[in-house]
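Annotated sample (chain length 148).
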Amino acid sequence: MSSANEMKLEFDSRSCNEGFARVAVAAFMTQMNPTLEEVADVKTALSEAVTNSIVHGYEGEVQKIIVECRIEGKELRVTVIDKGCGIEDVAQAMEPMFTTKPDAERSGMGFVFMEAFMDEVRVESVPGKGTCVFMRKKVGQPADEFNQ
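Output written by the structure step:
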């Protein structure tokens, strides 16, 4: 029997659902006994990924966003999937300050924030098919570290 635990959410690409996704993932990860900072980090990274799907992936059209979470040991994996327009150049999109919507008050820092708050961020995208953002974070510290 595997000790892994998984969950999957599917919701409309409406900005009002971004908060729902944040709270759902935060609630799911509580079984890992995370610190408040770890929860805040994951919520921030998730918020950026979901917002990117809404704003850039679907460009205002309402479609579905899928968030998958997996806990295995002390590792949390979060995947945000959209079937939107995709990203032509992932490396360029991940550059700080790069945005396809400069006139829409977008800072181009979404991927930078994801990378800052998670241990690993990987993006796979196919133009015209959609984008998957894979994020990973180690959660919790061994009890020994608290007693030093």
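Annotation: Residues 73 and 127 are 35 Å apart (CA to CA).
Annotation: The chain has one domain: 5-146.
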